Amino acid sequence: MRQETDRPLTTHCGISSPVARRSPAIHRFMVSTFRRYFMRHMNALRLAQWGVPSVPQTGPVIVYSNHPAWWDAAVYILAADRFFPGYESYAPIDAAMLKQYGIFGRIGAFGVDLETKRGAAAFVRTSAEILSSPERALWITAQGRFGDVRERPLGLKPGVARLVELAPDCTILPLAIEYGFWLERGAEAFIAFGTPMRGYDLMDLDRRSRLQRLEGELVRTMDRLSADVQSREPCRFRPVLEGHAGVGGVYDIWRRLRATLRGRAFDPSHESRA
C-alpha cells in the first residue's frame, strides 16, 4: 500500500509545488467533509457494474473525464478515495478559483490558466512533477469547460494527449460522469471507468491521432453509461454512496406514523407504499 507523507513546502520558479503543498491530514478531513456534503444533497453515487477501474500495478495514473457539472470535483475526490486509495491524487482547477478556495491547494488541486502560453507551460511543468512518481494520479476534466453529456464531439483539450509524453509508463483511464433524477428527491450521480490504456502504446500515435483515440474511448464509455442511466435499473449499478431517501419534513412524519399504525417498518424511499 502506498503511503502519504508530510513534506515541507518547496517552490518552483516562485510557484508552490502542489506535491509539497498537499497535506495528508487536510486531505483526509476534506474527503470526510465532501462525503457528508454529498450524502446530504444527493441521493446516490452509483458506479456502473462494468465500469470498475482497473488499477495498474506500476506507473502513475491519469484519469480524464467529461465535465457535465459543478459536482464533478466532489465526484473526483470521492472516487479517488474509494478506488485509488493507494495513490496521491491531484487535479488542475481554474487559477482564480484556487485563489478563492485556497484549501483545495492543500488536497492536491493546482491552479491553471490555459488561455496563455505561460499558463499552459506551467501546467505541463506541474503535471510532469506529479507524474514523475508511480504513486500519484492526475485527474483531468479534459473538455476544459462544462459540457452536456449529449454533446458530440466532446472537443477535448489537446493537452490531454501531451500528458502521456511526460510519463510513458502511465496508465490512462477514461471516466464518464452523468447526473439524473430517478425516483427520489435528490439527484443521482453515475460514473463508469472505461478501458485502460498504456502510455507506451499511445506514444506510437502522433498527437492528433492520440487525441482522437482518447476522445473515442471516452465517448464509448459515456454512451454505454448513458444507456444504463436511461434504463433506470439500479441493478446495473453498484452503490458507492447513498444519501437519505424520502421527501422529509411533515410529509415523511405522516408516512412514518401511518406505517407505525399499520404495523410496518417505515421505508422513506419513494417506491415504498408505507
Beta-strand proportion: 15-25%
Number of helices: 9
Average predicted local confidence, pLDDT: 87
Q: Give the number of DSSP strands.
A: 11
Query: Given the helix and strand composition, which structural class is it?
Result: alpha/beta
Rounded to an integer in angstroms, the radius of gyration calculated over CA atoms is 20 Å
Helix content: 25-40%
The N- to C-terminal Cα distance equals 46 Å
- The CATH architecture of the largest domain comes to 3-Layer(aba) Sandwich
CATH fold description of the largest domain: Glycerol-3-phosphate (1)-acyltransferase
Record keyword descriptors for this entry.
two-stranded antiparallel sheet, alpha/beta, nine-stranded mixed beta sheet, 274 residues, 2 domains, Glycerol-3-phosphate (1)-acyltransferase, single chain, 11 strands
Tell me about this structure:
α2 (24-41) crosses α3 and α5 (117-130) runs parallel beside α6. The strands form 2 sheets. Strands 3, 4, 5, 6, 7, 8, 9, 10 and 11 form a 9-stranded mixed sheet that branches. The chain has a two-stranded antiparallel ribbon with strand order 1-2. It folds into 2 domains: 11-243, 3-Layer(aba) Sandwich (Glycerol-3-phosphate (1)-acyltransferase); 244-274, no CATH class. It is of the alpha/beta class and 274 residues long. The chain has helices at 18-21, 24-41, 72-83, 95-100, 117-130, 159-166, 199-202, 207-231, 249-261, and strands spanning 11-12, 15-16, 42-48, 61-65, 88-94, 109-112, 136-141, 171-180, 187-193, 197-198, 237-242. The longest helix is centred in the last third of the chain and has 25 residues, at 207-231. The N and C termini lie far apart (46 Å). It contains 9 helices and 11 strands. 38% of the residues lie in helices and 21% in strands.
